[in-house]
Amino acid sequence: MLTVIPDLLDGETLGRVRALVDAAEWVDGNVTSGHQSALAKRNLQLPEESPQAKQAGQIVLDALGRSALFIAAALPLKVFPPLFNSYAGGQAFGTHVDNAVRIQAGTGFRVRSDLSITVFLEDPESYDGGELTIETNFGVQRVKLPAGHAVLYPSSSLHRVEPVTRGRRVASFFWLQSMVRDDAARQMLFDLDSSIQALAVDLGHDNAQVIRLTGVYHNLLRRWADA
Ligand code: NI
């Protein structure tokens, strides 16, 4: 499942993130890669320990924590601190699968990557290429979103970033471990939750069937979740 989170960052928040990121020192992106993906990756990144990256990452995490859509779709258990990358002058990231387990340098904090997140931080009109291309069961999806929008996708999927042939693509990217490991189970919970929310608007939160379905949602979550 791909989930787009529109306006994860509002204009003011996006401006704060960009001011931090633009003032930071960029390095070769291969510092965070596994061996296989290092072969395919040509971009720049902010180092994990960069103070600006840490501050900007915290702003992104705070925004995620306020997003009901993100929480319902991801059911997050542990989130890796957001990283930042930049592509320009033909840079790209060839087809790859993200590493299964991410370990934060210095702290040993470990996250199994169930979902990958990209937060777009640049106006899509200002660069050519740079689509996030994801191979799904329903075919290839090409994602290029307005600045401040985010996309969630299964870390298990083959994906790539197309070459940026004009301008510069800046984004935040990171991974999370979901309370519900299985993509299909997580998708069903999200669909059920979305329908319950819609029914509650039509019928009222105290409607007996809404209450019963809410119970089913929580009992499925209890059955499937690691917490
Ligand atoms: Ni990737």
UniProtKB/TrEMBL annotation:
Q: Which residues form a coiled coil?
A: none
Give the signal peptide, or none.
none
Q: What is this protein's record name?
A: Fe(II)-dependent oxygenase
Q: Is Oxidoreductase found in the keyword set?
A: yes
Every copy of the Fe2OG dioxygenase domain together lies at: 78-178
Q: Which residues bind Fe cation?
A: H96, D98, H159
One Pfam match, given by its short name, reads: PKHD_C
GO BP terms: namely: DNA damage response; intracellular iron ion homeostasis
GO molecular function, one example?
iron ion binding
Q: Which UniProt keywords apply?
A: Dioxygenase, Iron, Metal-binding, Oxidoreductase, Vitamin C
Q: How is the cofactor bound?
A: Binds 1 Fe(2+) ion per subunit.
SMART domains given in the database record: P4Hc
Q: Which residues bind 2-oxoglutarate?
A: R169
InterPro entries the UniProt entry points to: Oxoglu/Fe-dep_dioxygenase_dom (IPR005123), PKHD_C (IPR041097), PKHD_hydroxylase (IPR023550), Pro_4_hyd_alph (IPR006620), Pro_4_hyd_alph_FE2OG_OXY (IPR044862)
Cofactors named for this entry: Fe(2+); L-ascorbate
